[in-house]
Amino acid sequence: MQVNMHSGGQRVVITGAGSGLGRELALRYAKAGARLALADVQEKGLAETQTMVEAAGAAAFVQRCDVRDFSQLAALAQTCIERMDGIDVLINNAGVSSGGYFWDLSLEDWEWQISVNLMGVVKGCKAFIPHMLGQGAGRIINIASMAALMQAPGMSNYNVAKAGVVALSESLLAELTPLGIKVHVVCPSFFQTNLLDSFRGPDQASKEQIAKLLENSPISAADVAEIIFSRSQAGDFMILPHERGAQAWELKKANPQVIYDEMVHLAGKQLGQSSI
Ligand SMILES: NC(=O)c1ccc[n+]([C@@H]2O[C@H](COP(=O)([O-])OP(=O)(O)OC[C@H]3O[C@@H](n4cnc5c(N)ncnc54)[C@H](O)[C@@H]3O)[C@@H](O)[C@H]2O)c1
After folding, report:
1. Which atom number of ligand 1 is nearest to the Cα of residue 21?
2. According to the CATH classification, is domain 11-243 in 3.40.50.720?
3. Pick from 17, 50, 159, 182: most CB atoms within 10 A?
4. pLDDT tens per residue across span 175-201
């Protein structure tokens, strides 16, 4: 049975909604009375998220959508128009993880990473912005990463993809704000989700390192979702949910060399070359 979604609260579409942060964002918007379009490549996770948001009292539909394929995003936008008469908030959240030193990463590793984490966001924006321009209103929230700002060693393809998401968001901020569309970019440090399920990289060691960082996060995916919800409503463009991440970014803006030296030191330690 199709639920009538033509009236109600804000219309929100979330990619990668079948797990982790995407699911928590869906639950946070559900709590605020939103109508939700939930998209992912994993249908089992999507169905679970739908059950959870409906239990929270929200109306939702799910659609399988691979963000690498523009035609699937265009079809998702079309369904949003048919079922909800438009879209108020687009959250480009779908993403995958990767690691490995540059000399070990293949060009296929690069293409895969860029196709999901960067081009997936470009294509999401391309599919939904025409409708937002037609409405003269809307909000876009792009999920990047602290990796975009810090460029830690051993994950250059992820760093570049996420830096691209920040640059795209800054470009859209300038172009779309005068036209009534709000833009935000989110740069979290590590937090516990299923992100490592998608891990691709040449060595197991970097996966284990990232697993430890995910486990040690002081804040949960639900906390990150809450911060994104409240700070985007408050009008913040760049949202840095982790306090230590925000401090590191302040430090890099004031004195980038301190962070460059720290990253060289870190890589030296990882590579057993601590005298560098
Ligand atoms: N967890 C962290 O530490 C962390 C830190 C910074 C940024 N992020 C970013 O947060 C976002 C959400 O990740 P998460 O941590 O919740 O991980 P997750 O793996 O739990 O969720 C990501 C979801 O994206 C989906 N997905 C992957 N490829 C897709 C594709 N091609 N099309 C559609 N959906 C696809 C997955 O199926 C999954 O359900 C990602 O963009 C990630 O890079 C995560």
Report:
1. 16
2. yes
3. 17
4. 999 999 999 999 999 999 999 999 999
